[in-house]
Every structure is written in structure tokens, then in C-alpha cells.
Amino acid sequence: MAAPGRFATLDTAPARRAGHLAETIAQVRDAHGRGASIEELLWLTWERSGLARTWGAQAQGTGVLADEANRHLDSAVALFTAAQRFVERSPGQPATDFLAEVLGADLPEDTLAPRARQDSVLVCAPTAVLGAEFDVVAVSALQEGIWPNLRLRGTLLHPDRLAAVLEGLPVEQIDARKAVLDDELRMFALAVSRARAALVLTSVANVDEQPSSLLRLIPDAPLDPGTGRMPLTLRGMVGALRRELAGNPGSPASAALARLREERVPGADPATWYGVLAPSTDLPLADLEDPETRVTVSPSRLATVEKSPLGWFVDVMAASPSGIAASIGTVLHAAMEKLSLTPGADLSAQAVMAAVDERWNEFSFESPWVEEYERRRTTRLAEGLADYLSAFDRDGHRLLGAESGFEFDVGPARVRGTIDRVELTRDGALVIVDLKTGRRWPTKDELPEHAQLGLYQLAAASGALEGLPEQAAPGAPSSSSSRTAWAGGCSARPRRRPSARRRSSRSGRA
């Protein structure tokens, strides 16, 4: 396409068409070099394309091809009209400025050229629908600060003051901001009044954006019961038919469900409905009377068992995938273990984040701002963890175990888990530490009754933890099983330095 004549050696129909296009591009380039206007360039391209004859003949017929040709012709007329207006408004301006203006526009410019609006969607400003009506009107971006936009207009020539002077009114009584609000209200009333059948208003409510105050002017719409309409998905249709059949057993929905069952649509077969078939068994999941039976219990799930045994069972049998917060917590646990077991390791927040960054690419975020939010939150947690580890090293305590696994039996239950840290203080007290990275942590009053920490202490008391010195064994006079520490959230261990307590509080807010 760089120069004409290069397709002459290819004797095929596509090559001849490509050669014709290359010749057109060359002529347009030469005309532009001679200073031709955008209107002249468009006419040159249009005449060489031969589309006027082709589309004109197709538009005379009926059907999809004729409708498509009519839309093409309407677009061509609108483009030529815009080019003519550009030349009249800016004579002598290069054609490239017109192309940049058209390609950079968010909305098509208003034009007096005739346009077909049948079977089409009109995207325009409110002023462009004056005198027109539509079956459906969608008013978008009803956000505070966007609509109504109370920014003052006409601050250069002040046309409102000129109008007041001509009418003999005092200029001091003009409220410019009220005039702008009145104009915004008139445009809103114009937009919403163009709908014949349906009006759709859209807005967003979040931390950064608030819905427009104009929405309060719209009366509450009645709830749509959805009568006579079915969802457009097979799964949604099956649900709607089953709901209708449950409310009216004699409904024709049974025949529709039978038809869907023949096509093996999921959920349509009554044999798969909950409560239709008898339970396959009513025997317990485990025979607790059998002395050989052992039911595995995780310390982290004991609180769920106490709150709702059914919820614990469902979570164990059909666990949902962990969220991004839980995944980041796992990486922070790994970073703590790595730094704890490395002699002379750097315990600063930067070192903790460096260990986290080694696995940061494993996470998948919905959008860049979510990643930025989670990274800032992780940085605050890393600061809290670094404060805890630095204070531990500075106070001269000793680490007995990191990610220490244990297993012991309590009746028919087999408790199996992992303790984040087992520490020995300078005065010989045994401290069990569990790192929490969630948005909520136990309060000081909840710690003595906390089920997870209770099982950790029970593991230490039953001898399930290896490597504990004899003088620090639970029950020794110098130890206290209630002095547990909570890293990353709050700590029940008394701090000797007020600054350390403040750092712990900062990490707690994270």
C-alpha cells in the first residue's frame, strides 16, 4: 500500500482491488500535499470507491441488506455534512485536524443532515432530543458534580448580565449559580420526558462517587413482578419454572420442565431436587461409640463448631475457595516463618515485604486499584509483624518453634494443627503465638475463652509439642498458659515500652 503499481504483477481479483485502493491512497496523499481541504479529500475517496452506485442499488430493495445500505448512506451524508461545516468554520485548516476532532469525539456532533433513526440507538446530549420521543430513554451518569453541574458558565462575557441590562433589571439581583441550577433542571426534565414506555436512570454509589440529588425528584417505581417473562438463561428458566410449579401444582410449568429434562438441562429432573428423594442413610458420619473412631478437629475451626456444627460440616465437606485476604495471610505466615528461622535476619518492614513480594505475582486481582488497596493493607500488616519480631529479638526472648505441627487425642477427637510460634520469655514463661492477618481479632477479654488458643495450650500441656525445655513445661511455677500473644492484631503480652505498645496498636488497626 506504500505506493501504487505494486500489485500489477498479481493477476487476481483481490490484488486488483488492493491495487485500486493503493492508487486511491496515493492520490489522496498527493492532494493533501497540495493543500486540499478535507471536503475535497472525502469527495475524491468517495468517487473512486464506487460505493454510491453499489449502496444506492442495495438501498432500493428490502430486507437486511437494504437496511444496512441505508445506514451506510446515512453515515456518509453525516460525515460529508460535518466536513462541510468544518471547512466553513475553519477555512485553510489542515484535514488532519478534522480527523483528530472526529476520532476524538465522545458523542457525534449535532447535524442538520437527515438521519434515519429507525431500529437504531441515538446517543446524544439532552438538547438533541428536543421535539422527539422514544420508546426507551436511558439517562446515564447521574452523579453528584456531573449532573447537576453547578460550574458557572459564561464568565467571560456574562450573557446573563447583558440580558438583564437589556430588560432593565438590576444586575446585582442576578444569582448566577441558581441560573445554572435552573438550566440543569430544565435539561433533566427534557431528558426524562422523552420516554414513551420505559425510563432508565443509572448512577453509582461508592466511596468516591455519590448519586445525583436529581434522583430524589423521581417517584419510587413499583416493583416489577416479572409476570409473563422468563429469564434468558437455561438455569434461570429452570428456577423460574420450579418456583411457579411449587406455587401452583397444576401449572403448565410441569410440561416445560419435562421438555427441559428430555434435553438434560441441569436442575430440570425432579430426581435431583432437594427433598424429593428420601435420604440415602440416616446413620451418623462417625460412630463415636467405637473406641477406634477418631474425628479430626482443627483448632482454627473449633470456634465454628461451637457456633454452628452444621456450618462447620458444610464448610468441611464443600469448602469454598479462599479469598484474596486469606491468600495474603498465608504468604505473611510464610514470611514470618522464614525470618524467624533465619539467624541474624533483617526484621524490618521492608524485609517482610521483600519476602511477600517473592510470591506477590501469584495473586490475581480484579483491577489495579484493588491490587493497590490490598498492597497498602499488606504493608501495614508487615509493619505490625516487623514491630513484633523486632521487639521479641530486642527483649532477648527465645524462639522454641515456628510452624510447629502437633497431634493428640481427646476422647474420640484427634486434634491436629500447626502453631505459628512457640516462644520462651527471659523469665521462663511459655508463650504461644498465633498470627492473625484478618480485619478482626479477639479482644483482650475474649482471649481467655478463645477456643483456638485453648487447644494450642492443651497441646503444650499434653506433651504434643516437641522441643520444649523441661523448666518451661506448662504447669511449672514460672509459666502461665494464659500469657498468649497475638501478632499482627493485638497482644496480651504486657509491653515494657510505650512505643512498642503504640506500634502494636497501629498494626491492630490494619
The sequence of SSEs as H and E is HHHHHEHHEHHEHHHHHEEEHH
End-to-end C-alpha gap? 60 Å
Which segments are poorly predicted (pLDDT under 50) over 5 or more consecutive residues?
A: 473-510
Quickly give the structural class: alpha/beta
> Shape, please?
elongated
Summarize the structure.
This protein is of the alpha/beta class. Helix content is 43%, strand content 9%. β5 (413-424) and β6 (430-433) form a beta hairpin.
Descriptive notes:
With 510 residues, this protein is of the alpha/beta class. The protein has 16 helices and six strands. The strands form two sheets. Strands 3, 4, 5 and 6 form a four-stranded mixed beta sheet that branches. It has a two-stranded parallel ribbon with strand order 1-2. Strand 4 and strand 5 form a beta hairpin. The radius of gyration is 37 Å and the shape is elongated. Residues 473-510 have low confidence and may be disordered.
Ordered list of secondary-structure elements with their pairings:
Blueprint lengths: L12 H21 L4 H12 L1 H9 L4 H26 L5 H9 L30 E6 L19 H8 L9 H17 L2 E7 L32 H14 L5 H10 L32 E3 L4 H6 L1 H9 L6 H18 L7 H9 L10 H27 L3 E13 L2 E12 L5 E4 L17 H11 L36 H12 L1
Parallel strand pairs: 1-2, 3-5
Antiparallel strand pairs: 4-5, 5-6
Helix pairs in contact: 1-2, 2-4, 3-4, 8-9, 12-13, 12-14, 13-14, 14-16
Tags for this model:
16 helices, 510 residues, two-stranded parallel ribbon, alpha/beta, 4-stranded mixed sheet, 43% helix
